[in-house]
Amino acid sequence: MRVAVLCGGVGAARLLRGLVPLVDGPDLTAIVNVGDDLELHGLHVSPDLDTITYTLAEAVSAERGWGLEGETWQAMDMVKRYGGVDWFGLGDRDLGTHLFRTHRLGQGATLHEATAEIVAAWDLDLHVLPVTNDRLRTLVTTVDEGEITFQEYFVRRQHDVAVTSVRFELAEGLLPAPGVLDALAQADVIVVAPSNPVVSIDPVLVVPGVTELLRSRRDDVVAVSPIIGGKALKGPADRLLVELGRESTAVGVAEWYREIIGTLVVDDVDASLTADIEAHGVTCVVAPTIMSDLKKATALGQVVLNASASR
Amino acid sequence: MRVAVLCGGVGAARLLRGLVPLVDGPDLTAIVNVGDDLELHGLHVSPDLDTITYTLAEAVSAERGWGLEGETWQAMDMVKRYGGVDWFGLGDRDLGTHLFRTHRLGQGATLHEATAEIVAAWDLDLHVLPVTNDRLRTLVTTVDEGEITFQEYFVRRQHDVAVTSVRFELAEGLLPAPGVLDALAQADVIVVAPSNPVVSIDPVLVVPGVTELLRSRRDDVVAVSPIIGGKALKGPADRLLVELGRESTAVGVAEWYREIIGTLVVDDVDASLTADIEAHGVTCVVAPTIMSDLKKATALGQVVLNASASR
User: With bands split at pLDDT 50, 70 and 90, how would you rate the model's confidence at A309?
Assistant: First the structure.
């Protein structure tokens, strides 16, 4: 069975971790958001790609959910001494990844090539693809600061600020990275991870060809709701949905994705929303969706694969 | 008394450390080689500027003579995991300096502005100036690899390779950094630090205006020989002098600098060379020149200042 997963960061990484025991590595492709990539201190930082790699390598910081275990902060301490940009913390080990990626990009490698090298160095055999090699940036318009980059919103402002709109800045002639459309076309199941629909999955969907492909394969697309009991487990998905005029519930998620998904997996606590979700033409599957350990993540992975297979 | 010092890395840093107790900070200006700067992993690395700053801040690694005390190597360990460029070691603390410098250059700051901010953050009150804000690179032609950059020669090859020539690649329209020519014009004493004449001081001298100014003030210029008993204390100065057809002695140093210095301070062990040095029209001063501690460095600093004052 071939599986392609549209991914943001932490939630996607956990679902992928649950799929790894169920799907042969070469048949599993993560298609990852790069809208929150940033250039910092001259380095190219790809937070979602790294969260996925570190999580699957069992090297992620369990405490933070991102970054590396055993991390130290010597470089950032020095940056602080100089009064430099310190609102985006880069651990010393993590910096090694950014140094390597930046070096390879400087040599003319593409982001998907650099990513493949990083993933291979962690002995992972799934495909981890940036959705595009071209520049794509998520920009957030805030009430008090106007338009700022995603990381300024998410990290510097701790997403504690009202948002009026989100848009994506795409390089002219932006294309999907090699392998992205193939993986979506050939997958038996396409999964939309429980990532933020507005700022993690939408920047994947705006890449030319992706939404069109999902629409044409809608029956094979299964999303997992990132909203549980009206709340996001992590991050501002709940708040953003409301600020953009939607409902912060699994129903709101079904409505957001209705044109591209055939099935939505919602948490047990949202079982009562089944009829409202199906009113949007989306099959609703109810299951435990909080992936607090590998066993639970794998159980959810199985639900996702079954949800598609049973259609 | 105002003092300007032409500087490479370790030897210059030690002499400056000896001058700091003798000269008011604002009257002391280090004019520093940037020919061995490099772009690595997207970062701008300025080894000689940093060696001087770290040494004067009493933060330099006593063991290595460069880099920082209390250093860790987590980022480089990751770069190695990825099979990245690992022949030039960047410690985690040291990386903070490169991150800040690269960030400031990316914002449009000049190298001398970024350097002033770094120096101030270490609570130093002397002026540390890159000789130029423009791109200047030292290139070394080796017998077996052809032309390579200075750091490829010095670090990757451990300067253990025969050299046939050295040249400097200068940006078109390259200018001295603001303050450089003023400091040289207004100094009571101009010091040429005991750095490598070929690859540390020559790239300072090629910057337009510097050599002309030294020539016109030759009587006020005092060099300290980096060659002691025919050997360089550190690095390949001895070998390079021979490979470029000179003599690896204090006499060879006097000959190399004869047009721009009035006085050469040589080590006690080279007292017998006085007549040969003075045959080049250079006054010879004999003193202990090995700066193994601050006391010895300060004593040498005093010799250098007296050497000029007594003329």
Answer: low
Instruction: Give me the helices (H) in chain B, please.
Output: 10-19, 47-56, 74-81, 92-106, 111-121, 150-151, 180-186, 202-205, 210-216, 237-243, 250-257, 274-278, 294-309
**Helices and strands (H and E) in chain B: how many:** 13, 14
Strands (E), A41-162: 43-45, 127-130, 136-142, 146-149
Is 0.90 surpassed by the pTM of this model? yes
Query: Model confidence over B83-137: pLDDT tens digits?
Result: 999 999 999 999 999 999 999 999 999 999 999 999 999 999 999 999 999 999 9
Helix (H) / strand (E) containing A14: helix A10-19
Q: Is B202 helix (H, G, I), strand (E, B) or coil?
A: helix
Interface contact flag, A100 B106, Cβ < 8 Å: no
- B104's CB contacts (< 8 A; 6+ apart) are A84, B113, B114, B117
d(CA B176, CA B125): 21
Split at pLDDT 50, 70, 90, the class of B308 is: confident
B160-173 pLDDT tens trace: 999 999 999 999 99
Q: Can you read off the two tokens belonging to residue B265?
A: 């301070």
Which residues lie closer than 8 Å to B279 by C-beta, 6 or more apart? none
**CA B254 to CA B273: how far, in whole Å?**
10
Return d(Cα A117, Cα A112) in angstroms, integer. Answer: 9
Picking from A43, A81, A100, the nearest residue to B82 by CB comes out as: A100
Pick from A39, A78, A100: CB nearest B96: A78
ipTM of the complex: 0.90
Report CB contact under 8 Å: B78, A97: yes
φ, ψ at B166 (rounded to 5°): -130, 135
Q: What does the block give as tokens for A147? A: 């338009």
- Residues in chain B within 8 Å Cβ distance of A97: 78, 82
Asked which of A272-276, B5-9, B27-31, B154-158 is least confident by mean pLDDT, the reply is B154-158
**Strand pairing partners for B43?**
B40
Q: Which domains does chain B have, with CATH numbers?
A: 3-38+126-135+173-309 (3.40.50.10680)
In the block, which residue shows the tokens 């000049």? B110
What are A232's two structure tokens? Answer: 């996001």
Distance from CA of A115 to the nearest CA of B (A): 11
Distance from CA of A242 to the nearest CA of B (A): 36
Q: Which residues pair with B287 in a beta bridge?
A: B267
Beta bridge partners of B166: B140
Give the tens place of pLDDT for each residue, B200-251. Answer: 999 999 999 999 999 999 999 999 999 999 999 889 999 999 999 999 999 9
In A, which residues are within 8 Å of B81 by CB distance? Answer: 96, 121
